[in-house]
User: Which sequence fits this backbone?
C-alpha cells in the first residue's frame, strides 16, 4: 500500500520546500505532516517522503529513528506524554505516571486496554514551573494531581477504576491524621 | 523584597499581547522601524556590543562579539533562533514565544538588518505547539502589516522569518546539531571549527542565538546599549549586562518565571521570587542554578577568595547562595549560570536518586556519535541502578567519578561535559547520599516526589 498526502497537504509541502535552499531541509516538517495524516510514520511514509524530497529512504529512516516525536509503530488516537524529568519528578510525576498506568491498564510505552490512549514517557517539556504535567496530543496539562488526571481521562472516555485498584495516598500521611 | 522593572516581560501580563494590534499599542515595532529606517547595521552592532549581553541560551557568550565573527563579504547570511528549549528545569523562552511573540519577531527584524541576513529560521521544539502557533500567527500578522516581506517598513531590504519545528531531541539545542536538524538531517553535532558564523546553515555564515537574547535586542536599541547594560547589579568589570528572565522550579512555594536584573542572588530567587521553601520544616538541601547540566550548589558551601585582587573577593566567606548570579561569578564557584532557571531540592530528596533521574535523561538524549558520551552515560545509569538495588560497593562510587572524568572533553559537543559535571558535583557535595545508597539501596522507597505526594491526593481524600 503506497502512501500519498491529501491535496491540501501537498500544497503545504510545496510551500514548505520553498522556504529552504534545499529540498531536504523540509524533511522534518513534511514528516510531521505525514504523521498527522497517517497517525504514525509507516515504511510507506518513509518511501513517500524520500521520493518527494529527493532523498534516499535510508536517509529519511535515519531521521525518523533519531527523533522521539515520530511514532515508528501505530499508536492510539490519543497519546499522553508524561514528563518524568527532575523538576516534574520533584513535584509528583512518578505518582502521576503510576496513576495513569493503573487507570489505563498499561505501562509506559503501551496502549490502554480499550485502545483509546497510548502512554509514553517524555523528557523535559519546558513546563517545569507548572509541574507535574503531561502532554495530551497537542495540549499541555499542568499543575496536575490525581483528581485532574482522572478528569482528563474521563473526558477521553477511559473507564473508571474500581476503588480497590486505585492508587492510595502515602501511608505516613494517614497516620498523622 | 526588592522590586524590579519589567522590561523584557513588560507585555507578559497584558491580555492578548500576542496579537499585533495589542503588542503595537504597547510599544512593539517602534524599534524595528527605527532600526531599519534610521540606523546603520554597524550602529546596531555597536549598541549590542555595548549592552554586554551574554547569550541567554546557556553558554553565556557575548552576543555582540559573536556577531563580529561573521565574514565581511558573505553573500548569504542566516539568522537562526534557538528555541529548542529542553534543558531540564528551563522554561523561560516558552514564556516569550507564547506571551509576546512579536518581541522576538521584532528582535529578528533588527538583528537581520544588523548582520546582513534576509532570512531567519526559528527552530522550535515541536512539542511546544502553542509557541509554534503563536509565532506563526505573529509572523503572518507582521508580514501582512508590511513589517516583513519585500519592503519592510518601506525599506528595500527583503526580510522573512520561518518557523522550523524540531522533532524531539534535546541535542538539537546544541547549535551545530540544530543546524543539521534544520537541514533535514539527524541532529548530530558537527565538529568545530568551522564555527557557524563562518560555515553554518546550508554552508553559509550563520548566527545562532537564543530566543531571549534576540528578544532583548529591541530593548537594547530603545534604551541604548550602555543604559541597558547598566541595569545589571554586577560590577561593570564583569561585562555581564542587562535584565533577564529567571526561572525557578522544584520545592518552592511559587515556582515560575520572573524578570530581574542580571546579578540577583540565588537566595533572592528562592526565598523572594520563589516564595521560599515548599515546606517550612524541610530546609534547602541543594539547588541546581541554571538547568540540569550546571553543577548543583550546596547552601552551606562558602566562597573561597581570600586574595584582595580576586574578582570574587567581595563575596569571600559567603554562602554560594549569596553570590550574584552572573556568567563569570557562577563559573568562579564551580558551577555555571546556564539558562538561569534553578531547580530547588529540599531535604526529602536523595541526591543519588536525583542524579539517577538526570543521568537517565542524558543517556536517553545522547546522540550516539561519540563513544565516551554514548557508552559513558549508559554506564553511569547502570552503576547508579546497581547502587539503587543495593548490590554495589563503595568502589562503585569511585567508578562513577572515573567514568565522568573520562567523558569530559573527549567528545564533539558539550553534552558529555553537561552529563559529567553535574554527576561529579552530586558526588562531591553529597557523598553520604551515595554511600548510604550503597549500604541500603534506593529501592522503591526513595521517591523524588516524597515532599508533595500527599497533596496530590488532596481531593480524593476529602
Assistant:
Amino acid at each position: 500500500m503506497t502512501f500519498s498526502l491529501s491535496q491540501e497537504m501537498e500544497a503545504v509541502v510545496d510551500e514548505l520546500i520553498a522556504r529552504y535552499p534545499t529540498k531536504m531541509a523540509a524533511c522534518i516538517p513534511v514528516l510531521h505532516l505525514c504523521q498527522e495524516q497517517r497517525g504514525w510514520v509507516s515504511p510507506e511514509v518513509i518511501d513517500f517522503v524520500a521520493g518527494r524530497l529527493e532523498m534516499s529512504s535510508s536517509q529519511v529512516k535515519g531521521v525518523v529513528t533519531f527523533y522521539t516525536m515520530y511514532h515508528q509503530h501505530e499508536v492510539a488516537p490519543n497519546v499522553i506524554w508524561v514528563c518524568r524529568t527532575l523538576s516534574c519528578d520533584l513535584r509528583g510525576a512518578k505518582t502521576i505516571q503510576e496513576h495513569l498506568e493503573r487507570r489505563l491498564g498499561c505501562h509506559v510505552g503501551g496502549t490502554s486496554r480499550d485502545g483509546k490512549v497510548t502512554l509514553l514517557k517524555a523528557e523535559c517539556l519546558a513546563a517545569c514551573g507548572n509541574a507535574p504535567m503531561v502532554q495530551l496530543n497537542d495540549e499541555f496539562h499542568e499543575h496536575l494531581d490525581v483528581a485532574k488526571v482522572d478528569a482528563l481521562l474521563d473526558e477521553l472516555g477511559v473507564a473508571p477504576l474500581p476503588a480497590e485498584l486505585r492508587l492510595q495516598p502515602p501511608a505516613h500521611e494517614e497516620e498523622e491524621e | 523584597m526588592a522590586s524590579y522593572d519589567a522590561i523584557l516581560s513588560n507585555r507578559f501580563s497584558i491580555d492578548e499581547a500576542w496579537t499585533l494590534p495589542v503588542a503595537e499599542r504597547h510599544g512593539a515595532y517602534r524599534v524595528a522601524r527605527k532600526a531599519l529606517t534610521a540606523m546603520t547595521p554597524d550602529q546596531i552592532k555597536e549598541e549590542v556590543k555595548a549592552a554586554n549581553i551574554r547569550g541567554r541560551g546557556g553558554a553565556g557568550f557575548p552576543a555582540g562579539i559573536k556577531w563580529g565573527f561573521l565574514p565581511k563579504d558573505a553573500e548569504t547570511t542566516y539568522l537562526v533562533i534557538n528555541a529548542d528549549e529542553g534543558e531540564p528545569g528551563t522554561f523561560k523562552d516558552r514564556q516569550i514565544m507564547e506571551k509576546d511573540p512579536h518581541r522576538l519577531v521584532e528582535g529578528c527584524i533588527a538583528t537581520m538588518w544588523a548582520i546582513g541576513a534576509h532570512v531567519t529560521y526559528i527552530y522550535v521544539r515541536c512539542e511546544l505547539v502553542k509557541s509554534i502557533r503563536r509565532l506563526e500567527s505573529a509572523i503572518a500578522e507582521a508580514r501582512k502589516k508590511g513589517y516583513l516581506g519585500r519592503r519592510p517598513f518601506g525599506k528595500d531590504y527583503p526580510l522573512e522569518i520561518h518557523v522550523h519545528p524540531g522533532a524531539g531531541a534535546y541535542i538539537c539545542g546544541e547549535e551545530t546539531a540544530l543546524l543539521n536538524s534544520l537541514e533535514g538531517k539527524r541532529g548530530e553535532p558537527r565538529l568545530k571549527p568551522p564555527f557557524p558564523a563562518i560555515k553554518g546553515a546550508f554552508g553559509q555564515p550563520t548566527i545562532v542565538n537564543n530566543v531571549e537574547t534576540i528578544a532583548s535586542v529591541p530593548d537594547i536599541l530603545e534604551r541604548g546599549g550602555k543604559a541597558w547594560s547598566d541595569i545589571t547589579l554586577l560590577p561593570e568589570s564583569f561585562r555581564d549586562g542587562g535584565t533577564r528572565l529567571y526561572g525557578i522550579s522544584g520545592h518552592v512555594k511559587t515556582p515560575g518565571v520572573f524578570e530581574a536584573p542580571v546579578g540577583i542572588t540565588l537566595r533572592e530567587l528562592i526565598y523572594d521570587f520563589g516564595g521560599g521553601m515548599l515546606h517550612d520544616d524541610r530546609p534547602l538541601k541543594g539547588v541546581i542554578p541554571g538547568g540540569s547540566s550546571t553543577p548543583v550548589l550546596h547552601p552551606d558551601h562558602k566562597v573561597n577568595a581570600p586574595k584582595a585582587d580576586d574578582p570574587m573577593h567581595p563575596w569571600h566567606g559567603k554562602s554560594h547562595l549569596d553570590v550574584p548570579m552572573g556568567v563569570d561569578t557562577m563559573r568562579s564557584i564551580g558551577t555555571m549560570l546556564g539558562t538561569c532557571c534553578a531547580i530547588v531540592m529540599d531535604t526529602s530528596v536523595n541526591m543519588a536518586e536525583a542524579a539517577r533521574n538526570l543521568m537517565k535523561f542524558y543517556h536517553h538524549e545522547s546522540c550516539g556519535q561519540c563513544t565516551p558520551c554514548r557508552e559513558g552515560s549508559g554506564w553511569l545509569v547502570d552503576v547508579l541502578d546497581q547502587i539503587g538495588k543495593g548490590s554495589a560497593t563503595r568502589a562503585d562510587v569511585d567508578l562513577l567519578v572515573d567514568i565522568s572524568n573520562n567523558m569530559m572533553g573527549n567528545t564533539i559537543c558539550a553534552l558529555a561535559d553537561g552529563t559529567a559535571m553535574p554527576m561529579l558535583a552530586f558526588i562531591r557535595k553529597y557523598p553520604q547520599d551515595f554511600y548510604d545508597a550503597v549500604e541500603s539501596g534506593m529501592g522503591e522507597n526513595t521517591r523524588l516526589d516524597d515532599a508533595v505526594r500527599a497533596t496530590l491526593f488532596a481531593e480524593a481524600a476529602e
